[in-house]
Design goal:
Strand content: 5-15%
Distance between the termini: 16 Å
Radius of gyration: 19 Å
Order of helices and strands: HHHHEEEEHHEHHH
């Protein structure tokens, strides 16, 4: 059976993990779990969509509380954001990112436990939910993703999605150009509202061609929303803390980028 943490993923993430704290000379306690096993538990929960307490003990990755602790710890250390940036740089170096066009769309997920940044889902009788705002290139490579309550207007999240994208390395970008004619809108929003959201945003921040033309297609940006929702914990939020869900979302974006790189 193929391992959840492949060698390709581990080679990229291992240098980014913070070192474990030094053990005491006297009464050192139990040895910490292997980080690769902990990551296996995190990926199992992300993909299966189960609760932390339901993590199978036979995986050998510790209890769910331990995996949740490290997911949060590594998120605060910026590991998932750095992993996403590393993979985007590899894609950029291989000319696998189409910088001529960006797509932004959103999808709604259930949040039956409620918690931070949740709100009434306007498409599901006002039940508690969240919204994923995803920006991709024309081929569906996820460049950035943010989380809001389900009742947040999508057009207000265009600028946060742009600024959430990590700086992409890999190769020097072309000379900066003036931004193209605003945006084509997201969902049912109008180009003028979307253009006002982008007004004043510095084109030299992280987009090598300046602010691109934007559009949103039905079913999300070239399939990225459906790819994200193939992970069970992104279809149904069970954590009340937003940072836990954001950690899952950024890790899922990195995994999709790894799919594009191939074996």
């Amino acid at each position: 059976m193929k391992p959840l943490v492949t060698d390709a993923l581990w080679q990229r993430i291992a240098p980014l993990l913070p070192p474990p704290p030094p053990r005491r000379f006297r009464f050192p306690g139990r040895k910490p779990l292997d980080s690769r096993k902990i990551l296996t538990g995190i990926l199992f929960v992300l993909k299966a969509g189960i609760a932390w307490d339901d993590l199978p003990a036979e995986l050998g990755c510790g209890c769910g509380k331990t995996c949740r602790h490290y997911l949060r710890l590594w998120h605060r250390a910026g590991v998932w954001q750095e992993l996403h940036a590393v993979l985007l740089a590899e894609l950029n170096g291989a000319d696998r990112i189409d910088w001529r066009r960006a797509l932004i769309d959103a999808s709604i997920a259930k949040a039956p436990e409620g918690g931070e940044d949740t709100g009434p889902n306007p498409t599901d009788r006002g039940t508690s939910g969240i919204k994923h705002h995803v920006m991709t290139d024309a081929e569906g490579v996820p460049l950035a993703a943010t989380v809001t309550a389900a009742n947040v207007d999508e057009v207000t999240q265009v600028l946060p999605a742009l600024t959430a994208m990590p700086p992409v390395g890999g190769k020097p970008g072309p000379k900066l150009r003036k931004r193209q004619n605003g945006c084509k809108g997201t969902g049912a929003t109008t180009p003028s509202r979307c253009g006002r959201s982008c007004a004043g945003w510095g084109s030299s921040r992280c987009w090598p061609h300046g602010i691109p033309s934007m559009a949103a297609g039905w079913g999300c940006s070239a399939g990225s929303c459906s790819w994200l929702h193939s992970f069970g914990r992104l279809r149904r939020r069970l954590d009340r803390l937003t940072e836990i869900h954001e950690a899952f979302l950024r890790l899922a974006c990195a995994l999709i980028c790894l799919w594009f790189l191939g074996p």
